[in-house]
Design a protein that fits this description.
Blueprint (H helix, E strand, L loop, with lengths): L5 H26 L9 H29 L4 H21 L8 H26 L1
Helix pairs in contact: 1-2, 1-3, 2-3, 2-4, 3-4
């Protein structure tokens, strides 16, 4: 079975991850900080934006890929993938140290959680037959 849907979303997510990584790397270089955040709140925010992405996206993509291989319907996969990409685009703008309840943070994390739930439910239904 060819894998056709998951890569559609893996590519833009990889680009987002690279952009977040570049932001961390540039900030570290500008502040001469090799490890950690050096008590710099701005650098800490950039590190957490990248870290939060790494905490969520690989698992959702993995479950999405397994779902695609197990025959989860395209509508489920596209819904989860599109929601994940949009959520991961929005989330970094809301992850701020001075505003833990920023609406974009809540929307971004909620969307990521919903994308995971869609993948898990679709996979569970496909496994149940």
């Amino acid at each position: 079975m060819p894998i056709e849907i998951t890569p559609i979303y893996a590519v833009p997510l990889a680009v987002i991850m690279l952009a977040l990584w570049i932001n961390v790397t540039r900030a570290r270089a500008a502040r001469s900080v090799s490890i950690g955040h050096g008590e710099d709140v701005g650098l800490h925010e950039k590190i957490r934006r990248h870290g939060n992405f790494i905490e969520w996206v690989p698992l959702v993509l993995l479950i999405m890929l397994i779902g695609e291989l197990r025959g989860v319907g395209p509508a489920w996969l596209h819904a989860a993938g599109l929601l994940l990409v949009i959520s991961r685009l929005i989330h970094p703008f809301g992850l701020r140290a001075d505003n833990p309840a920023h609406v974009l943070r809540i929307v971004g994390n909620s969307g990521s959680l919903l994308a995971l739930a869609i993948c898990v439910l679709g996979l569970a239904l496909a496994m149940a037959g």
